[in-house]
Specification:
The complex is a heterodimer. Chain A is α+β, with helices and mostly antiparallel strands. Chain A folds into three domains: 4-291, no CATH class; 302-413, no CATH class; 421-478, Arc Repressor Mutant, subunit A, CATH 1.10.10.410. Chain A has 15 helices and 16 strands. Chain A has helices spanning 54-66, 167-183, 224-243, 288-296, 302-313, 317-323, 327-339, 343-361, 372-384, 389-402, 406-413, 421-434, 436-443, 449-460, 467-478, and strands spanning 4-15, 70-71, 74-75, 78-81, 91-94, 101-110, 113-126, 130-133, 144-147, 154-160, 196-206, 216-221, 251-256, 261-267, 276-277, 284-285. In chain A, helix 7 packs across helix 8 (343-361). Chain B is an alpha/beta fold. The termini of chain B are close together. In chain B, 38% of the residues lie in helices and 13% in strands. Chain B has 15 helices and eleven strands. Classes of the chains: A alpha+beta, B alpha/beta. Chain A binds chain B through residues 40, 43-52, 79, 81, 83, 85, 88-91, 138-139, 144, 146, 272, 274-276, 278-282, and chain B through 82-83, 89, 91, 96, 99, 101-103, 105, 200-205, 208-209, 235-239, 315-316, 318-319, 321-325, 327-329, 337-339, 342, 362, 365-367, 370, 374.
């Protein structure tokens, strides 16, 4: 056991799924021409005045409720003042003093244990713009370009208590958080498009100590696995620093994915944001009734869905956990089940084939072409014996890539299983004739030799022969 | 006929009767601006060509028999911190010397919609910070009654323009009395509406919780006509209040009988010039004569209001002015790296008073000082509001001097910022409480006009107009004319 304990808090920025920005009517669509989705308000032009997007309040409330938070009935916006070229107004509008949601929690499962991580707050804030440098950074570039399309995008920042103790727990927390936000429709939670971003505050202290050690803040992590690895690296680094007798420096560190290390970005000299209430915006006033109306729109969340898969369909906890970790997977499962009522078989296929191909292609489910209907008819083909399980896997790969109907694939490629004795007897005769040693082995009682012969028939038929039928026919032939 | 001595409603009558065209009026005004502007310097920008085109367009509409607003064809000017599409809007600051907004402020839009003709943009104290228009980043404006004196500030150009007959009416902005004090110095009427009554969309913020746009006019009838156009809810402005806007012309009646008017004793104590005090007492007697009941009242937290206001307005200003960093618009001083660019741009672009307030605001908002200064100031603000709430339970109106003195000489206070700030001490509590208040000229002292301030309950601009109209109709003290006009 290490004599140190890691203390980790996560700050997760989530972009809310709205059509328009936080305080203006500009589109939030991703990937458009730089500075094509801007107006005087999100550019902070002199005299511009913003008006709060009601949808943001609804989504933030929904997220807060789904994270077991209390919702403030009277909250407001504050300004965080600092200078940076991507910050059009010279301040960021956020909720510093009175966040819309607070005192929540999230239960995570690590090593078969459930652990509760408390959520300090979830507050609404605006995104600044985005900088692109011609050189490496703003200080050594000849020119830097600012894209204000992102300026004024609605975010919620979800801040956890420093109750996470390992990189593994951090990953579990993020996965659960992502699933909840996806289920509630609050966000697209696409890390690759920046709609979910995470910073980790990491410190270590001797086991048993109740005071916090000096923390560092890690940024630039672009996957959950990176978060886990970065935290694990940083914990080890800080322990090594302390063991050496040095002090951990409070600073911001970046995660270098290629080298697998964190690197110092800048020293933090306690920035003074000079926060105060924004008097150009109206406070947010919510009624209890309205909050309850929002609560009523929250769908079944991952934990309860997982429980249902275990209890109603008898899925193993592990399978149920993976399938419900993403709404898309869970919905895929449910939809397939409508057409092919065998939960375990579907789960097996999703866990092995579907996830294997998704992982191999580093893809999200929506990028794959296979549909629940397609999987259901594939499984029906296998069940009817039209194709073997093995051929089924080949067909599935084609469906995954091209989205074709399995029956069509089987027909086009001539993959139907051969169960017809007339068609098979010729091949079986040839295999017996060409493999006298195996035949002799079998006849002398070596049961496993039949497996080799079946394999030879399968090979000769390019896998199309029905292995059951082949086995039966071979036995008959050899015991004549 | 001296067109530029006529009020809006008089001009409007002439236009209606087709005795004159808007083009003729506009030309007359432009000509007059040519004659007096060298002395007065009320304008940052004069938009003569545009004005004539607008005037002709209104004349065409009139000739087609269209139903027009009383402001249609009337030449106006707007203070240069209110955005005008395609026309430079500088806040009288070097940092925005070239800023041309691609949009109109809501008030600009509404006035244009009513057919008012824009003659140009008025000079002011830079970013509306000051009391004499000597903080303009461009040049000083002078008082039309005495060119050696200040016109007041921050909307000094707007007040001087009306007084000197360079515009039939103007819009100013009032964060700390910046409409009322110059109106008082220049012998015209200035009204700061209830906070939220007039949209601030397109107003370049100084201190968001205190700023308000309001009209400056030659008489009370004109004030009602302009308020009818600019007041009312705007969905683009979060601070805009959704209330019914009455027809303010209905308040143009002579009747103050039984009206309970409070005279806050704290406003008659400190530094008030005896001559001004005497004039205000004269107005009180006049109102009593006409049937109003005037009694001394107390607003006990008045003495703390200026300090609280200075802290709050500077805090908000330090944040509101952060966007002038050279990145997107206005001045940019080229430098090696981005931080130096920010610093040089702001050092060169802002004047001393603005810098002073940014530093003060930054100081009071810093974590170490936030509680001691900013939060304390907010508490004072609440107490000041409560003072008014108490008094307005019993009184319909408060009457005070607008300023402790008449217009002071140029350069007298420019190096003593606190003394300068004191010229707003009777105005500031009103901004802290978000109330409507008006300055009305009442007589002259040594050739300079004296201003009378009336303060009402929120959204009770009507009572201000009624009392103002009654005074206007009952005495000859409310229309001082500077000798300067031709």
């Amino acid at each position: 056991m290490s004599k140190y304990e890691a203390v980790i808090g996560l700050e997760v920025h989530v972009e809310l799924k709205t059509k328009t920005k936080l305080f203006c009517g500009c589109s939030t669509e991703f990937g458009k021409e730089p500075n094509s989705q801007v107006c005087p308000v999100c550019l902070g032009l002199p005299g511009s005045t913003g008006v709060l997007n009601k949808k943001v309040v609804e989504l933030a409330t929904k997220a807060g409720l789904a994270l077991n938070c209390e919702i403030g009935t009277y909250t407001w916006f504050d300004r965080k003042n600092y200078y940076y070229p991507d910050l059009p107004k010279g301040y960021q509008i956020s909720q510093v003093f009175r966040p819309i949601a607070y005192n929540g929690y999230l239960d995570i499962d690590v090593n078969g244990q459930t652990k509760r991580i408390r959520i300090t707050r979830a507050h609404i804030e605006e995104d600044p713009g985005k900088l692109a440098h011609s050189g490496g950074s703003i200080t050594n570039s000849l020119a830097s370009f600012v894209d204000y399309n992102r300026s004024g995008m609605p975010l919620i920042e979800i801040v956890s208590e420093p109750e996470i103790r390992s990189g593994e727990e951090a990953k579990a927390y993020l996965e659960k958080l992502k699933a909840i936000l996806e289920y509630t429709g609050v966000s697209d939670v696409k890390m690759e498009q920046g709609s979910l971003r995470c910073d980790a505050n990491v410190s270590v202290r001797p086991v048993g100590s109740t005071t916090l050690g000096t923390k560092t803040e890690i940024k630039n992590m672009n996957s959950f696995r990176a978060v886990q690895r970065a935290i694990e690296y940083e914990v080890e680094r800080q322990i090594a620093v302390l063991e050496y007798g040095d002090k951990v420096v409070q600073e911001t560190r970046g995660w270098d994915e290629n080298r697998g290390i964190t690197v110092s970005m800048r020293n933090k000299e306690n920035p003074d944001y000079r926060c105060f209430m924004d008097h150009e915006l109206t406070p947010i006033e919510l009624t209890r009734e309205w909050i309850e109306e929002v609560r009523a729109t929250i769908p079944e969340l991952p934990d309860s869905r997982r429980k249902r898969l275990i209890e109603e369909y008898g899925l193993p906890a592990y399978d149920a956990g993976i399938i419900t970790s993403s709404l898309a997977l869970a919905e895929f499962f449910d939809a397939t089940l409508q057409k092919f009522p065998d939960a375990k078989t579907i789960s097996n296929w999703m866990m092995s084939e579907l996830l294997r191909l998704l992982n191999a292609g580093n893809m999200e489910l929506h990028q794959a072409k296979v549909t629940p209907d397609g999987l259901a008819s594939l499984l029906n083909l296998i069940k009817k014996g039209t194709i073997s399980n093995k051929i089924g896997k080949e067909v599935f790969e084609i469906m995954f890539k091209e989205g074709k109907d399995p029956e069509q694939i089987v027909k086009e490629k001539g993959l139907s299983q051969i169960s017809d004795a007339g068609q098979l007897s010729q091949v079986i005769a040839e295999v017996i004739a060409n493999n006298p040693k195996s035949v002799a082995d079998f006849k002398s009682g070596k049961e496993q030799a039949i497996g080799f012969l079946v394999g030879q028939v399968m090979k000769a038929t390019k896998g199309q022969a029905n292995p059951g039928v082949v086995n039966k026919m071979l036995r008959e032939e050899l015991t004549k | 006929m001296q067109l530029n001595r006529l009020s809006v409603h008089q001009l409007s009558e002439l236009l209606k009767k087709n005795e004159i065209s808007s083009e003729e009026i506009t030309k007359d005004y432009l000509q007059h601006i040519d004659q007096v502007e060298d002395d007065i310097k009320a304008f940052v920008t004069v938009t003569g060509e545009d004005a004539l085109a607008q005037a002709r367009s209104v004349d065409e509409k009139r000739s087609r028999g269209e139903e027009l607003s009383p402001l249609a064809g009337i030449p106006m000017a707007i203070t240069d911190n209110i955005c005008t599409k395609g026309i430079k809007t500088t806040c009288a600051s070097q940092i925005l010397y070239n800023f041309v907004p691609p949009y109109d402020a809501t008030v600009t839009e509404r006035l244009k919609g009513a057919g008012a003709v824009l003659l140009g943009k008025c000079n002011m104290d830079e970013f509306a910070m000051g009391s004499s228009t000597e903080n303009s980043g461009f040049f000083n404006t002078r008082n039309p009654f005495d060119l050696a004196r200040v016109p007041g500030g921050a909307s000094g150009g707007a007040a001087a323009a009306v007084a000197a007959g360079e515009a039939a009416f103007t819009l100013g902005t009032d964060t700390d009395g910046a409409i009322r004090q110059p109106a008082s110095f220049c012998g015209v009427i200035g009204l700061k509406p209830t906070y939220g009554y007039v949209s601030k969309t397109g107003l370049i913020s100084h201190a968001s919780s205190l700023d308000q746009i309001g009209p400056i006019t030659r008489d009370i009838t004109d004030l009602a006509l302009v308020l009818n156009v600019i007041c009312g809810y705007d969905s683009k402005d979060s601070t805009s209040v959704s209330v019914d806007v009455p027809d303010f012309k209905k308040n143009l009646v002579c009747d103050v009988k039984g009206l309970k008017i409070g005279l806050p004793k704290e406003y008659f104590e400190t530094n008030l010039s005896p001559e001004v005090a005497a004039k205000i007492q004269e107005a009180v007697r006049k109102l009593e004569e006409l049937g109003a009941v005037c009694e001394e009242v107390s607003l006990p937290h008045t003495e703390y209001a200026p300090a609280a206001h200075y802290i709050i307005s500077s805090a908000e200003a330090s944040s509101n002015l952060a966007r002038y960093d050279g990145v997107r618009h206005g001045l940019r001083v080229e430098e090696e790296d981005v931080l130096s660019m920010f610093k040089k741009t702001r050092s060169q672009g802002f004047g001393d008073e603005v810098k002073r307030r940014i530093m003060l605001g930054t100081f009071v908002l810093s974590t170490a000082n936030y509680e001691a200064y900013y939060v304390k100031a907010l508490k004072v603000r609440n107490l000041v509001r409560q003072d008014f709430d108490q008094v307005f339970k019993k009184y319909d109106l408060l009457l005070t001097p607008t300023s402790p003195s008449t217009a002071f000489p140029l350069a007298e206070k420019v190096n003593t910022p606190l003394a300068m700030y004191q010229s707003h001490i009777y105005n500031i509590p009103v901004n802290l409480a978000g109330l409507p208040a008006m300055s009305l000229p009442f007589g002259m002292v040594q050739g300079l006009s004296v201003g009378l301030q009336l303060i009402a309950r929120p959204f009770d601009e009507g009572t201000l107009l009624r009392v103002g109209y009654t005074l206007e109709q009952s005495t000859d003290q409310t229309r001082p004319e500077p000798a300067l006009s031709r």
